[in-house]
Amino acid sequence: MEIPEFLPYSEIESQASWSLYFISHGLVRGISRAMFGLKTYGVENIPQSGPAILAANHRHWKDVLLLPSFVPHRHVTMIARHEILEKRAQGGYFRKLGAIPVHREAPQQSEVKEILRVLKDNKLLAMFPEETREKGRTKSRSEIDLRPELKPGLARFALAANVVTIPTALVGMDRGFERPQAIGFGEPIEPPTDKNVVDKWMENWRDTMGALYHDTYIKLDQSSSVHGIDG
C-alpha cells in the first residue's frame, strides 16, 4: 500500500515500516525532549525535497535513533555497520526502517550501489563520516572536538551523486543520558566538482563542521543558562 504524500515520511514504501518509523521516532522525540532537554537548531537547512546527505559526528550509540527522529516530515535512510544489522533484534528493527548495511573497512560494490540508488531516488541519506563513534566521555563542557577526521566515503558519495551535504552536529551525546543535548543542522554544502578538489573540499567541510559544532554548543549553553539547566 502506497503512503499518501500528505503524510510525513511518505517516501517509505511499506505501510508496516511507515507505522514503525512514525511511532518509534515519535517516541524518541518525546522522550529525548523530556529526559535530555534536547533542542534542535537549523532545521530549516534540511531540504524539503530532493536528495541530500546528512553527515554527523558520532559519540553515542543512541545517535542512530536521535538523528532521524528530529528530521521533520522526511524519511532518513541510515547507513549502519553491517555487524549491527546482523544481530537479530537490532538488525530486524533497523532493516524495517530502511537502514543500509555497510562493511566499514571495505564497502562492497552492492552496498555502494544501494547508497547511490537512495540518492538517485531523491531521498535523504544519513551517515557518520567518522565511521565509528569516538570512545570515552568528555571530561568538561569546554572540551569541544572540532574538525573531525573524515573517511573518504562522504566526498565519494557527494561527488558520485552530485548532491549537497548537510553538516550535522550532535552535541552533548557523549554525556549518555544526561542533560542537556542538542542537534544542529548546518547550511547545505555543494558537492566537490571533481576528484582533483576532493582533499580541499574535505578540509573545508571539516572547518565548517567544527564551526557548526562550536555554534551549536554555545547556543545550547546559553539556552541551558536561561532555563536553569546545570550542564
Primary descriptors:
231 residues; alpha/beta; Glycerol-3-phosphate (1)-acyltransferase; seven-stranded mixed β-sheet; 7 helices; 40% helix
Uncertain regions spanning at least 5 consecutive residues: 136-144
CATH topology description: Glycerol-3-phosphate (1)-acyltransferase
H/E topology pattern: HEEHEHHEHEHEEH
Question: Mind telling me the CATH superfamily name?
Answer: Glycerol-3-phosphate (1)-acyltransferase
For the residues shown, what is the average pLDDT?
85
Query: Which shape, going by the Cα principal axes?
Result: globular
**Name of the CATH first level:** Alpha Beta
Strand order of the largest sheet: 1-7-6-2-5-3-4
Span between termini: 46 Å
Which value, in Å, is the CA radius of gyration?
17 Å
Number of strands: 7
CATH architecture: 3-Layer(aba) Sandwich
Strand content: 5-15%
* Domain module tally: 1
Biggest sheet features: 7 strands, mixed
- The structure class reads alpha/beta
Describe this structure in words.
The protein has 231 residues and is α/β, with parallel strands linked by helices. It has one domain: 3-Layer(aba) Sandwich (Glycerol-3-phosphate (1)-acyltransferase), CATH 3.40.1130.10. Helices cover 40% and strands 14% of the residues. The chain contains seven helices and seven strands. The protein has helices at 15-36, 63-69, 82-86, 88-96, 109-120, 153-161, 198-226; strands spanning 39-41, 52-56, 76-81, 100-102, 124-127, 164-171, 182-185. The protein has a seven-stranded mixed sheet, sandwiched between helices. Helix 1 (15-36) packs across helix 2. It is globular, with a radius of gyration of 17 Å. The N and C termini lie far apart (46 Å). Residues 136-144 have low confidence and may be disordered.
